[in-house]
Every structure is written in structure tokens, then in C-alpha cells.
Design goal:
The protein has three domains: 74 residues, SH3 type barrels (Roll), CATH 2.30.30.520; 210 residues, Rossmann fold (3-Layer(aba) Sandwich), CATH 3.40.50; 113 residues, Rossmann fold (3-Layer(aba) Sandwich). 23% of the residues lie in helices and 23% in strands. The strands form six sheets. It has an eight-stranded mixed β-sheet with strand order 9-6-10-12-13-14-17-18, sandwiched between helices. A five-stranded antiparallel β-sheet has the order 4-3-2-1-5. It starts with 9 loop residues before the first helix and ends in a 23-residue tail after the last helix.
Length: 449
């Protein structure tokens, strides 16, 4: 395989070699009576050897299958695709100071042509330099903390993010943006909600569903919106901000403890669960619509209370019919300190799980109950199954999301190893993780139901 034809092999390589084509050349491909023109781009090593990949003038990529009748002609020469960071615009005095922290993810990624996958590559500084409009919103202090996809982040990363955010606030940041992969962004949002309390400014987590080098990318739009929110929003909470719909009209601002990713690829993947979003941001007029009256206001202050400890020996189990109850015994034998059960309906598991649950609790493990249902809250006093679990000492966790309950228990054990104190923490509403009144489910869209 030639470096001039990165990723190509077999039949596709031979066709391009005969045409003396190189990556970056403008080529005309004639196949089955149809003509295509575009830039020859690298092929993923993990792809087959029967397709030629070109980028059309529209910015979209197409793959053309090699056949005996295909004809490739070089009609222009160009440079091999690469990312060259343009110089950033000048900072303007008098604007709010906003810190942008990059942890990786699609919002800070490009396509890896070796594998055909998206990999962390573009830094927060890269994004700032290619979105000069940011200079009209805030004075940006951007740097990379990690360059990881979100599935690789752990509680140790949450701790480092929390400490970094707090340091920026103490250094004068009037808002902080955390660029993050969307897959586990809700977990990190919940973690920061507990680790950073009494905030004086907004902390905005933001991601992208499509990488920055794709024409359909939402990275620039999302980063622009998140930065504006961090600089100008009237609230001071940990929030997650993403598109309300597929169009670039509004951005919904969700509380960090009440949000879940609900779609694999849509721009409007994030939904507030059992709570309205905190606010809505209008991209066109840059205005905020506050949707919840009870929120923490932006204020003067030296910095938040920082309690970033997380205990990793806390587990989450989703109950399912036929589940082997020995799974619970495994957590007990491994000396886990806590366990969140994601039960059915109002908070139930099979009676076959009773004995290991009772053993674990007698052994000092704290066990909380959430529901697999997105909407509503657990009520373990309705049926005898729930009442039995209550008698063993299982803690009902109201309408808390199971992910949030897991993070909260990790955080609680990170502050104290006393099970009695942890139980008190789990039933105390610390970061709006429990809705104080029932959310009007009738306002959900058909897609949400």
C-alpha cells in the first residue's frame, strides 16, 4: 500500500495506480454511465478493497464500487487532506471571561482515515480558532484536559474535571464550558452537580453528535451556544446544553442530574426526565427563556465548595426476568459498599433476589431502588413485593434517574464510609436530583412517550 494512496488496496488500489492518482487529487470517475467529480480521500484500512472514496463539492463523501467498466481520470492536483489551525481572533477587553475545557469526544474529533472511525483530535483551541464568532461573546481561555471518548472516562476523571473547573472559577472565569463526548456526558454532568456546590457561575457541558470535519456537524453551533450560556446565563448550576430539535433554532439547557441521552445520533438526543429543562436558549436572538422558577442565581463569589471524591466500589444492576440472584452475591463478596437496583415499575425485583439482598444489607451494603421506567417515581409501599424490600432496608430513591443515583451513591461514599450517613445523603435532595412535585407527563412529545 502506497502512502500516496492511504488505505487503498486490492482492486481499488490498482485502478487508482493506473490513473496515477494520489490522495488529494481532483478526480473524475465514470461508472455505469454516471460521472462523479470530487477530491480523492483516504480509505479506511478496515474497509474493503472494492470502493473508491471521494469528497464531492457539497462536502459529502461517497463511495464508488470498482467494476470492470469504471474509469478514473485525474483532472487536478491537490494537497493531502489535513487540518491546519487558523490563527485565533484577538481577545476583546470588557467581555466575560469563559474557560473552555476539552475532554475529547465528537465535539473535539475528526475522522481517522486509518480505521474509518472518529477519534479525538481537535482541541478546544482548534475549535476556538475556527469559530471566530466566539470572540464577540467572551474572552476565551481554552485548553485540553483529556483527549478521550466519553466511554473511557472514570470517576477519577470526574474528580480532575471538578478540580479544574473550580480552579478556573477561582482564577476569575465567569462561566465554564466542558466539551465532552455525548455517550456518558449525563454521568459527568451528575458527578459535577454533586462535586461542585454553591456555584457562583454556570458550568455548561456540551457535545456534538457529528464530528467537526463533517458538513452536517453541530460542533460549532453547540460550542457557540454553550459559550454564550456560560458567559451570560442568569443561573449558576451545572447544566447540559444541546439542540432542542434537529434545526438550529433553540438549545435546551438541562439540569445535570435530570438529563439522559435518548437517541444514538439525533441532535436533540438529550431530554430532561421527570422535570422540565431549566431554560431554553434562542440561537438567533441570543436570549434565554427560564423554564423553572426555582434555580440558583449567578452571584459574586470566590469559588464553589469542592467535594470531588467518588468511591468506585458502588454498582448498578438492571433487574430482568430470569436474572441470576447470585449477581447480587458477587457484589457482596467483592465487598462493594453500595448498590443501585433498577427495578420494574414502582420499584420491584423478583422474590428470588430477596435472600442475597437481605444478606448484602446485613453485611453493611447500602442498596437503593430506582425504576426502569423513565417517567414517574418509585413507590414501594403499593405492593407487597415493594413492602418486603422496604422491610429488608432497601431505600426508595423517588424519581431519581438510575445513572444519577449511581453517581450520587459513589459521591456519598466518597465523602464518608459510614453506611448510616450515606443513607441520609441518598434521601436528601442535594442538586435537584429529586423532583419535589410530579412532573406533568402530558407535556411530553409523542417521541418521548
Amino acid at each position: 500500500m502506497s502512502d500516496e494512496l492511504t488505505g487503498y488496496r486490492g482492486e481499488a488500489f490498482e485502478v487508482l495506480k493506473r490513473a496515477s492518482a494520489r490522495i488529494g487529487d481532483i478526480v473524475k470517475v465514470v461508472r455505469d454511465g454516471e460521472t462523479y467529480e470530487g477530491t480523492l480521500i483516504p480509505r479506511a484500512e478496515y474497509g474493503d478493497d472494492k470502493h473508491i472514496l471521494i469528497k464531492l463539492k457539497t462536502g459529502y463523501n461517497i463511495g464508488l464500487r470498482v467494476s470492470p467498466a469504471i474509469a478514473v481520470t485525474v483532472i487536478g492536483h491537490g494537497a493531502k487532506p489535513s487540518f491546519i489551525r487558523p490563527p485565533p481572533p484577538e481577545q476583546k477587553e470588557g467581555l466575560p471571561k469563559v474557560a473552555i475545557i476539552s475532554t475529547g469526544g465528537t465535539i473535539a474529533s475528526k475522522v481517522d482515515y486509518r480505521t474509518g472511525a472518529v477519534e479525538p483530535a481537535l482541541t478546544a483551541e482548534d475549535l476556538y480558532s475556527i469559530i471566530p464568532e466566539l470572540s464577540e461573546v467572551a474572552r476565551i481561555d481554552a485548553h485540553v484536559l483529556f483527549s478521550e471518548f466519553s466511554e473511557n472516562l472514570t470517576p477519577r476523571h470526574w474528580k480532575e474535571i471538578a478540580l479544574t473547573v473550580a480552579n478556573h472559577i477561582k482564577s476569575g472565569a465567569e462561566g465554564v464550558v466542558v466539551c465532552h463526548g455525548t455517550d456518558t456526558m449525563a454521568y459527568t454532568a451528575a458527578a459535577l452537580s454533586f462535586a461542585l456546590q454553591d456555584l457562583p457561575v454556570p458550568i455548561v457541558l456540551v457535545g456534538s453528535q457529528r464530528s467537526s470535519d463533517r458538513p452536517s456537524s453541530d460542533a460549532a453551533t453547540n460550542l457557540m451556544g454553550a459559550t454564550t450560556i456560560a458567559a451570560k446565563a442568569p443561573f449558576a448550576e451545572v447544566v447540559l446544553a444541546m439542540h432542542e430539535e434537529s434545526s438550529d433554532e433553540f438549545m435546551l439547557i438541562h439540569r445535570g442530574t435530570k438529563v439522559r441521552k435518548c437517541h444514538t445520533s439525533r441532535r436533540d438526543t438529550f431530554k430532561s426526565i421527570n422535570s422540565p429543562p431549566l431554560a431554553r436558549f434562542n440561537f438567533s436572538n441570543q436570549r434565554f427563556e427560564i423554564l423553572i422558577e426555582d434555580y440558583s442565581r449567578r452571584k459574586a463569589g470566590d469559588g464553589p465548595q469542592v467535594r470531588p471524591g467518588f468511591e468506585e466500589k458502588v454498582g448498578l444492576i438492571k433487574f430482568y426476568p430470569g436474572m441470576n440472584p447470585e449477581i447480587i452475591d458477587w457484589f457482596n463478596e467483592k465487598r462493594y459498599l453500595g448498590l443501585v437496583l433498577e427495578g420494574t415499575g414502582l420499584g420491584h425485583v423478583s422474590r428470588y433476589c430477596y435472600e442475597p439482598i437481605e444478606r448484602a444489607i446485613k453485611n453493611g451494603m447500602v442498596i437503593g431502588m430506582t425504576s426502569q421506567c423513565l417517567w414517574g417515581r418509585v413507590d414501594m409501599a403499593v405492593y407487597y413485593t415493594g413492602r418486603d424490600l422496604l422491610s429488608f432496608g432497601v431505600i426508595p430513591l423517588e424519581d431519581m434517574l438510575s445513572e444519577t443515583a449511581l453517581i450520587k451513591m459513589m459521591w456519598a461514599f466518597g465523602q464518608t464510609k459510614d453506611p448510616t450517613e450515606v443513607k441520609k445523603v441518598m434521601v436528601k435532595n442535594i442538586a435537584h436530583e429529586v423532583s419535589m412535585r410530579r412532573f406533568d407527563e402530558g407535556k411530553h412529545t409523542e417521541q418521548d412517550k
